[in-house]
Predict the structure.
Amino acid sequence: MPPTLGAVKAIAAGGAHSVALKADNLVTCWGSNASGQCTVPATVGAAKAVGAGHDHSAAVRTDGKVICWGSNQYNQRVPPADLVDVKAVACGAYHNIALRSNGTVAGWGNNQFQQSTSPPALNGVVVTAIAAGGYHSVALKADGLVHSWGWALLGQSPTPAGVANITHIAAGFGHTMAMKANGDFIGWGANDQLQAQTGSFLRPMVSFAAGQYHTIGISATGTVLCLGSNANGQCPGPTDPVVDLGMSGRVAAGFNHNLFLACNDHPVCESGSTVQWQATAGVTYYIRVGSPSGEKGFATLTLSTTAPTPCPADVNGSGAVDASDMAALLSAWGTNGAGTFDTDIDNDGIVSASDLSAMLSAWGACPS
């Protein structure tokens, strides 16, 4: 985390990088910059919202235009020319969706599962919030109903029957989460790590987010709950509150890391310091931020400050380069690798002998 980050009012977490919108409306970024996702272009200028994908980033300028940077493998860096009056952007792994001020949705980038095409079900309705997962997209409508579309192999879309009275949504790599007005969670899609549980955990949740294999949220009192994988220290204590920020705030989830923006009753944090913390599996932590006297304060907390060592040959994310990765690569031979898994390991636009060589060189367990 940058030591001079200063006051922040919005955050986004990507594959192995983080994006922040500072109190002065300027955008900063840290973490992996392998595809230029942390080289913020000068054309961004003053912004009002940010987003982060697997290896690209986005910002909504104060004039309502969207600027993207980083990888452009699937044209995720090129918004539609007529896209204006945007108030929010959400980045999936390789696609983006934007929410205009009039409640309509637009998308661009990878569209293998139609995840960046606004569906007919959203025609003529007002959308109030958006989220983008690995290869699927989610919209919260003004009537409290949720529409999800795109990749459906794991059940992350479409939205199950009975999902109603929703106030917040989030999308992970292969799962979708929604919160009802009473604070209950509803999850659907991949649940192999218990990341898409349904039930009452903490009430009321004021912010929550979904990562690759985990879901994380913060309550009105500043207590943090995490569900799902803790393979990289991103989700210690998967069934119990483990962090007490002592104040409410906002949370963002990347593939394997989280960001917290915490302010006690400040709409924009104005001053303060940075705390860094690396979780240890099996240990419960209680961290309170702010002065004992209750004076207004500010903190940014990252649950996992160290991104996992890149292992691009592990195309299915299993933690090891093995026969299943080889099968995926061979099935995509000669294509651009834009299938369920990103098999274009060297990002040269085609799955070929160079990718096979990279996979064989990395064979075995991924570095921790």
Q: What stands out?
A: The chain has two domains: 8-302, 320-365.
